[in-house]
Amino acid sequence: MKKMAIFHGRRWFFRSFSSLSSSHPLRVCIVGSGPAGFYTAEKLLKGHQRAEVDIIDRLPTPFGLVRSGVAPDHQETKIVINQFSRVALNERCSFFGNVSLGTSVSLSELREMYNVVVLAYGAESDRFLGVPGEDLAGIHSAREFVWWYNGHPDYSNLNPDLKRTDTAVVLGQGNVALDVARILLRPTAELATTDVANHALVSLQESSIRKVYLVGRRGPVQAACTAKELREVLGIKDLYIHIQEADLLKSPADEEELKNSRIQRRVYELLSKAANSQRPHPIPGQRELHFMFFRRPVNFLSSDASNNKVTGVHFEKTILKENGESGKQSAVGTGQFEEVECGLVLKSIGYKSVPVDGLPFDHHKGVVPNFRGRVLSNTSVLEKGLYVVGWLKRGPTGIIATNLYCAEETVESISEDVEQGILTPPTVPKPGREGLLQLLDSRDIRFVPFSGWEKIDVKERSEGSAKNKPREKITKWEDLLKVANG
């Protein structure tokens, strides 16, 4: 017997039912070809022998953040692409690149054509600090910077100025913040054998940046990174690390936090070890990484002569106070201020998902309201046949593997709804792939099939091989489409 979640009155309850079958295929469209989308496709194809899965993506290249988010010096993490490629090559699966939800095809059109629509397009925007000067030149989101050095076609022309300053400030202390700090400080000879975009490698080779500040509102106990990422940045060759020993003092509330989290304990231990082993001063010419805790940006600075370019960050010192509601400690201002001069600021304060027409959306949380992946139009009404997975479902948290468990939950909800019989009407099959092909053709939209991606892949690997790199990424839209359609 299976169980299905039903909303009644003010609570969810579970109802048992027997498996039902349909003679028609289960036609599924997944929007977004990152890890969440591919894990969902894999689970659906394995769990439903009659499922036909189409994956659409606005980019001509699949794999989402595995291609454009994972750091180039983390090649082992990208091996998951092999698993996703096997899914895409399944005879019941098709990839449609260069197809954008909202412009190429609407959500309502997809829902008409498919029994199931799963939204997995992640988070393609950024949270804002909302402090004065945030729009100054030289201030970028970490997402933009990551997409630039990873060769994302939307940001190949970002061109951050790394020449006219020796200091960068990174706001945030999560894994993405550590990634961008590491890319700025790591010897470029080591990056040259990765799949870093060529335009970024040239810029990093010419970079004048020698000092990076990693700034957090709270303390080392609350640093949001993992031990693996922290260990990697602390291990950069010939790098001077600076941590104020006073920042490592722990309160009883800090001790309680550490007791409840093995990850936080390990991160704190690594920071303490680095602080205890640091030299008093850097050697002349040595690159420097400064961990700044208990600071929040109040405004960004510029000078009249800087042509509206950032020249520094004005910080307020903070202290931690226990938040009675969440049980966590929150940073509050002390009224003491200081400034750090810099010519580059990277904001690593969180990615943000964006809504599309016809999609319920919680703008405060930046997610689609859902119950175990089932989209809710309000707190009690399920949107039949519409599901969500990944960052759009739970927020921009976790690692690649987190999307596997997230996909399993959403696919379980789909399976329950299929067996209940509400997704597969017995008499009227949905047009699915055939309908999508007709619609794209009528709009003269030339999509990129998986075979088109394979052409891009072959060319990138071939050009990379000549330079002792895993691949030399094609970074321009027109060039990607030309190779895919060639």
Automatic annotation (TrEMBL):
Its EC number is 1.18.1.6. The keyword Flavoprotein applies. InterPro entries: FAD/NAD-bd_sf, FAD/NAD-binding_dom, Ferredox_Rdtase, Ferredox_Rdtase_adrenod. Residues 27-192 form the FAD/NAD(P)-binding domain. Its cofactor is FAD. Belongs to the ferredoxin--NADP reductase type 1 family. PANTHER family: GLUTAMATE SYNTHASE 1 [NADH], CHLOROPLASTIC-LIKE. This is NADPH:adrenodoxin oxidoreductase, mitochondrial.
